[in-house]
User: Fold these one by one.
Assistant:
Number 1:
Amino acid sequence: MSFVTQEDVFAAIEPVMHGVFEEFADGKPVTPYPFPRIPYRECMGKYGTDKPDLRNPIVMQDVSDPFRGGGFGLFARILEDKKNAVWGIPAPTGGSRAFCDRMNSWAQGEGLPGLGYIFWSEDQGGWGGPIAKNLGPEQTEVVMGQLGLGKGDAAFFVAGDPKTFAKFAGTARTKVGTDLKLVDEDRFEFVWIVDFPMFEMNEETNHVDFSHNPFSMPQGELEALNSKDPLDILAYQYDIVCNGYELCSGAIRNHLPEIMLRAFEIAGYGAGVVEEQFGGMLNAFKHGAPPHGGLAPGIDRIVMLLAGETAIREVIAFPLNQQGQDLMMNAPSEVSDKQLKELSIRLATTLKA
């Protein structure tokens, strides 16, 4: 849509998404609009993913402070590096050694050495486990109190660089919620994920690169690009997530050539490269493109959720098999020599060993 803000896009799509689900949800509750909004970085810290399933009530927290210089040496040493943190994953009703041991074994199956935990021990009449024993009762109470936990509960902990462990933490949160039957599966929970970062640090090259969509409008526009730390610049990018699935993705697009050139410059691409690779778009901007934005709903995913399926191939008319073939249409098929000649394509012959 032309001449719109992010709020205009939200106001246009929310009634449509809500209406479709309300009509075909077979009586299941649907989040009323306006849908809640969670900034990307907050979302990653709470759920370990930018596609959170909010039917799961578990919210992770940074519990680093009680572990700094504390009795649990492993976490204390990890926290000596300022980029590291300790996250707590609450497990309401999970306070048994048997459940904690199962989660620890699961983590080892995922390739980790284990998963630290604190649980409510009926035998001790308080918090138990190796972490609680080393941390001490006072600091343990601080940690578990911060997580809102008490008798009958447990918590699991991951430590290190959040960029490295966030995905695993999110998977652990999902498993805890599922295994403890905390997830309300008979509802559709919508949420906007907003304020995606415009740039990120490329760990391989140690240079700033685009985080998601390079053609989005940075918040603050040219002034932000010229005055802020690139890693602090947010973009007008947004997703609609429902029950852990991204259903729509969109953005307010950049429509000004000077912003496009400056954004690519920050990411290490000179004006010549932009002209060569995106000259058509740049020329269109120079002739005057209107402010514009929108989003793209994933119809297949919407149908999948409404049909109660977990695999998108179950709702696609002609799904591909594991070899990438469409058996209904017998595609892909052999290409004739005539077709190859028309397109000036020559097939490379297989080299013999």
Number 2:
Amino acid sequence: MIEFRNVKKHYPNGTVALDGVDLRVEDGEFVFIVGRSGAGKTTMMKLLLREEKASSGEIIVGDYNLTKLRNYKVPYYRRELGVVFQDFRLFKDKTVYENVAFAMQVVGTPTKLIKRRVPAILNTVNLPDKGKNFPSELSGGEQQRVALARALANNPKIIIADEPTGNIDPKMSIEIMNLLMKINKLGKTVIVVTHEKALVDYYKQRVVMLRDGKIIEDRVGGMFK
């Protein structure tokens, strides 16, 4: 469960990025966060990732109260999350296998389990034969699938995808979204930040629309203006 309770975020320059946001996302939900540039989407994600703190209000994610979370506990909290970015953020000098394995190595996963789990994850994202390739040898869509595989590496409860289709063509965008839907059906909570109206309309999931730091619409079925 994710809950924003009257969350406000003000920056020192006077910008009000979020202005009293209330939002509840249940376990296993699929939610699109939409809005124009400057609406507050990025700030919302930064707060959810605990890259920044709210100015006031509370953010609850599972057993964690991010408002009161001490800095030393942040890495443990982030293990609950799998994050996919628009720019992939893959290690160029590591193979596909090594990129995914690295996410498991940093949390101390035994080598035996890594060897068993990585191929299974690559199969989930339809890249069973790409483990030995480097990112430069892959298309943009394939690189994004590797990023998604890495996000799944530690079996997180929540997947956050920040403009995951922003750097890939429309056909690959559908493939990435289909994978996110598949992951959601496995019981993961999935939050997708996007500005692509066509995708939101096509998938007809819950849509939360931000404008000027406020939620102005929250409904199921896509079709936002």
